[in-house]
Design goal:
alpha+beta, about 55% helix, about 15% strand
């Protein structure tokens, strides 16, 4: 995101973004093709604005999320929950709030930095898993064909013996 995008976001939602979140948007620590990049709403200011407007419209009925202006959607897991920043707490805790009308708080991180740390750890684990899988020798198709041929020969031999016994 650019400063212009951030300013547009702040004006549309009448909010001043905390310095830590602003810095994150300008210099994300994730590759653009990573899941973390997409999960933390780095696909554009317009999506963030729309998600927050929708959230605020439905959050008015939830007493746990009042005043709704203090909360800011910063991402989602794309299946069950939004990541919601509490702007009125200096620690910037991040709530996980379920999609839908109930908007239950299903989880919480003590700070935005803790959320980033969790995402960075997940990215590191995924990178390590990819490296392990790439380093592991693949079972060559030729061995599979030889094994299949051996099994067919064994079955044919057993069938021929069974036919003689009957």
């Amino acid at each position: 995101m650019t400063e212009h995008d951030i300013r547009e976001f702040e004006i549309a939602l009448q909010v001043a973004l905390p310095a830590a979140y602003r810095e994150f948007l300008l210099n994300p620590p994730f590759a653009e093709d990573s899941c973390s990049y997409e999960d933390l709403c780095l696909y554009g200011a317009h999506h963030l604005i729309e998600d927050n407007r929708r959230f605020r419209a439905t959050a008015e009925g939830n007493p746990k999320l009042r005043p709704h202006e203090r909360f800011l959607i910063i991402g989602s897991d794309h299946s069950e929950s939004y990541y919601v920043l509490d702007l009125h707490d200096e620690a910037l805790p991040v709530l996980e709030v379920s999609f839908g009308l109930s908007q239950e708080i299903v989880g919480q991180r003590p700070s935005f930095e803790a959320l980033l740390s969790d995402f960075q750890r997940s990215e590191q684990e995924a990178t390590e898993d990819d490296a392990r899988q790439a380093a592991a020798p693949a079972w060559p198709w030729s061995k599979c064909l030889v094994l299949a041929g051996f099994i067919i020969l064994c079955l044919a031999y057993i069938a021929s013996k069974a036919a003689k016994w009957l």
